[in-house]
């Protein structure tokens, strides 16, 4: 991981933008790491736990498997996977997130942590039986390259699960969701987060992210097969699944 190059002074906070410069995004996540999980639970009205359980069921981890959990943050999703007995690598490009994850979950024998850039993964070809990324692909500056890298490190016949914010298909619900994101979420984030500006960026990144069909096409273009998705919480989130050809 390279040293952060964004110029800041004491008291300043990192605020990434849709250019998604890796140093700025990583620095932003470093700052929110201690309160990140609690803030997400508050802002998602508790749905983050439901989404995590759905993601774990889709990955279907088993003892003896090796699983890569990308954009793992503090490792909450990784712990859920590791409970199956699988060997889980929790990877994130934020040193602050990794440090917080090790502090919280470093005693779990089959869970390890690694700093990793999703566009240049430090793992061997075909190393993992499954790879998953939750709410992190849209923060990568080249998500198509990341999907190709995930294919490279997955064993033939292995699986990918991408859990990401998406676009509700119902116009009425989309309007309600937009009102919450634009008017309510910033107020709540200011009250509960250590860096409310970070959640302004995250809100922008959700609006800018493509719909379910577009992400599915990116996965196919990267070489994944049997691509499918299902919506969670009326399409606020979509769970994409695919396999690497045997």
Automatic annotation (TrEMBL):
S-adenosyl-L-methionine binds at residues 74, 92, 117-118, 134. It catalyses: a 2-demethylmenaquinol + S-adenosyl-L-methionine = a menaquinol + S-adenosyl-L-homocysteine + H(+). Keywords: Menaquinone biosynthesis, Methyltransferase, S-adenosyl-L-methionine, Transferase. Pathway: Quinol/quinone metabolism; menaquinone biosynthesis; menaquinol from 1,4-dihydroxy-2-naphthoate: step 2/2. GO terms for biological process: methylation. Its EC number is 2.1.1.163. Residues 1-24 are annotated as: Disordered. Coiled coil: none annotated. CDD domains: AdoMet_MTases. GO terms for molecular function: demethylmenaquinone methyltransferase activity. InterPro entries: SAM-dependent_MTases_sf, UbiE/COQ5_MeTrFase, UbiE/COQ5_MeTrFase_CS. HAMAP family: MenG_UbiE_methyltr. Methyltransferase required for the conversion of demethylmenaquinol (DMKH2) to menaquinol (MKH2). Belongs to the class I-like SAM-binding methyltransferase superfamily. MenG/UbiE family. This is Demethylmenaquinone methyltransferase. It comes from Microbacterium memoriense. The lineage of its organism: Bacteria, Bacillati, Actinomycetota, Actinomycetes, Micrococcales.
